[in-house]
Each structure stands twice: as C-alpha cells, then as structure tokens.
Design brief:
Distance between the termini: 32 Å
Strand content: under 5%
Number of helices: 11
Oligomer: single chain
Order of helices and strands: HHHHHHHHHHH
Shape: globular
Largest sheet: none
C-alpha cells in the first residue's frame, strides 16, 4: 500500500510543477514506471492523470488570459487540441525511442531561447530596423508542431511554448504563463481522449485515480501560488525548471 501515498505525492508535485513552470511529466512518468508500469503505458496514464490538474490550473487563470501576439486565444487553443490529438495518435503507432533522442537538444534550445528570447528579439529588431514579431499564421504553425510533440511525449512542452513566444513575439515568460497553462490543458485534453479510447491507460485504474487526485490538488494550489509570485521570481522559477529539466534529460540520455 506504500505505493499509493507516493503516487499521490508524485501527482501533487506534478500538478504544482505544471502550474508554475512545467515539467510535471518528469515526476509523474518515472513514478509510474517505478511501480511496475511499462513506459508506454505509464506515459499514457500520466497524461490522463495530469489533465484534470492542468484544467484546474487553467480555470484559476481564466481571467488573466491575453492573446499571444496577433493570434486569438480561440485559434491557438483549437490548434493545440488538434496537434495534441495528432501527437497522441503518433505515440500509439510509432516507437518513442527515435523521438526521445532529439528531446534533450530540443529542451536545450528551448532553455536558451527562454532565457534570452526577449533580448534576442529586441536585438534582431534593432539590427533589421523593424519588429520581428511572428505573424498569426507563423504562431499557429509553430504551436501546431509543439502540440504534436506535447501529445506524443509532452516533456517540457510548456517551456518550449514560452520559448517560441519569447523569441518570436518578445513575450515575457511571466506574462505568458496563464496562456501556457491553458494551452497545456488543451494539448493534454485532446491527447487524453485518444488514450482513453485506443490505449491501455485504464489498465491501472487505482494508480491512475490516485495520481489524478494529487494532480488536481497540486494544479489548483500551484496556480494560486504562482499568481501571488512577483514576475521576476516567476521568471526565475520558469528558467530554473527549464535548466534542471534539460540537465536531467542529458544525464539520463
């Protein structure tokens, strides 16, 4: 019975991390694998379990959403849901190992752009004599591919979103966090529907339920805590999460 309190704590930690800076997958997935689930099954179970927590966090942020550059919230969310479903479908039919090889380098790129994206955006604008803001179409194309990645694997996809928005639009990481949380919920939600229908995510119902409860509590509490943090501290947490996640991936790799 010791596994259930530990899985509950892992769910709480994952929910808090996703609300504050992303990376909840890196807590939930190893915990489920440690208790005997095959990696692909654990990936599906963790994705399903983290959805309600992500939705709870998005609900807390619902009054603070703002369009990402020229792109409306509705369009961005629709693209996230479609991409998340496509990525989940790829996970069910393709081996995960080939894609995981590229993940550490994707995370490294995302971390660098998250740290210096706004400065790079201003430098490029100064050098070109004009703004480098991405068009709505470019933002949606980038969001689609990130959502596919999110549905397929999901690790630190929220960090990658902030990196894209930072370098392409000069959007501050703290200001973009409410939209990041909402888009993460959209990606996970569409992926979850497919996992529930076509995968064996329900093969461990007790573990799934316990982690889900923890993730909801963590997601709700984490979002409320994050709203009270000053912008500079939230930026620091986001960047620290990105750096730690990237290092762990390279070490694990």
């Amino acid at each position: 019975m010791i596994e259930f309190p530990l899985v509950l704590l892992a769910g709480v930690a994952a929910g808090v991390l996703n609300a504050m800076g992303g990376g909840g997958t890196f807590v939930a997935l190893p915990a489920l694998v440690a208790f005997g689930l095959p990696p692909v099954t654990a990936n599906a179970v963790s994705r399903v379990a983290l959805v309600p927590g992500a939705v709870a966090s998005a609900w807390v942020y619902r009054r603070e959403l703002a369009p990402v550059g020229p792109t409306s919230t509705r369009a961005l969310t629709a693209v996230s849901m479609v991409g998340g479903g496509v990525g989940a479908g790829l996970l069910l039919v393709l081996p995960a190992s080939s894609f995981e090889d590229a993940v550490p380098w994707l995370l490294a790129f995302a971390t660098v752009t998250l740290a210096f994206g706004r400065h790079l955006s201003r430098a490029l604008s100064s050098a070109l004599g004009r703004s480098v803001d991405l068009s709505s179409r470019a933002v949606l194309i980038g969001q689609f591919f990130l959502a596919v990645y999110g549905g397929y694997f999901g690790g630190a996809v929220g960090i990658m979103m902030l990196a894209l928005w930072g370098i392409g639009l000069g959007l501050d990481a703290a200001a973009g966090n409410p939209m990041r949380v909402t888009q993460l919920a959209a990606v996970y939600l569409s992926a979850t529907v497919l996992f529930l229908i076509a995968s064996d995510a329900l093969s461990a119902p007790l573990l799934l339920t316990v982690m889900l409860v923890g993730a909801v509590a963590g997601g709700f509490a984490g979002a409320h805590l994050t709203r009270r943090l000053p912008a500079w501290l939230l930026r620091g947490i986001l960047l620290a999460t990105a750096v730690i996640t990237t290092v762990l991936y390279f070490v694990r790799g």
